[in-house]
Write a structure and sequence with these properties.
68% helix; elongated; Rna Polymerase Sigma Factor, Chain: A; 3 domains; mainly alpha
């Protein structure tokens, strides 16, 4: 059983690593990259198809990037177009000018850092499109990305060469959006767990109350189920005191 658990963890880590590779590569991977990433697992055709389905749900293209029009809602498209239009002419500089601004920002020049934020603004919606439709609104993703951009530009003194700035800034923006999506998934999991707990307590309370032909008390439910009191009280709180088969005053 332990070896199986370890294998599943290794598989999940390989999947997570491959997803990051895809993000860094423009949100696309090849079939060869998939097979190489899972070379130790001797993938069956079914497992390969499952990985492809997982990546597609993450908006990762197989062989070629996915067109955002395929997964963005009309509302998100409108917001994205308006946002891009609003920053269209901000921060336009030549490559040489960008390098000069980056060098100045690396040395701590506040004005250069402000200017560099404008230079990188257009990068944020491009990255946000990669994480759309994964539990976080596009507008919120862009907000997270902009905050990460400000943080990244103020940390440029830790890189050694101006040529490293694009990768450094892009990574911090991606990390912020990854975290937002992860937090959303964790929240969904917590909500699902809460719903399950409330339903479990409600079902048992209904069963007991039907047997007693009256509402049951928390103490009677504890005696019947062997559950901890806190589990029942927490379920009552999470339901907004609406588990009707429990006689409760609190």
């Amino acid at each position: 059983m332990g070896n199986l658990d370890n294998k599943e963890k290794e598989f999940a880590l390989a999947l997570e690593k491959l997803t990051k590779v895809a993000r860094e590569g423009g949100n696309v991977v090849s079939e060869d990259q998939i097979r190489e990433a899972f070379s130790e697992f001797e993938l069956s055709d079914t497992q390969f198809d499952q990985i492809v389905d997982y990546l597609k749900k993450k908006n990762v293209g197989i062989g070629e990037p996915v067109d955002p029009d395929e997964y963005l809602t009309d509302e998100e498209k409108d917001y994205l177009n308006d946002y891009i239009e609003s920053i269209q002419n901000i921060g336009d500089v030549t490559d040489n000018e960008k390098e000069g601004i980056t060098i100045a920002a690396m040395s701590g020049d506040i004005n250069a850092r402000k200017q560099l934020v404008e230079v990188y603004l257009k990068l944020v919606p491009d990255i946000a499109k990669m994480y759309a439709e994964q539990g976080v609104y596009l507008e919120d993703l862009i907000g997270e990305g902009n905050e990460a951009l400000l943080k990244a530009v103020n940390m440029l003194d830790i890189i050694e060469e101006p040529s490293e700035a694009d990768e450094f800034v892009g990574k911090l923006i991606m990390d912020a959006m990854e975290e937002a999506v992860s937090d959303s998934l964790d929240e969904d999991a917590r909500e699902q767990k809460a719903v399950k707990q409330v339903q479990e307590v409600a079902d048992k309370a209904k069963e007991l109350s039907e047997s007693l032909r009256r509402k049951c008390t928390v103490e009677e439910l504890i005696q019947e189920t062997g559950w901890e009191e806190e589990k029942i009280l927490e379920a009552i709180r999470m339901s907004g005191n609406k588990i009707e088969d429990i006689e409760f005053e609190g």
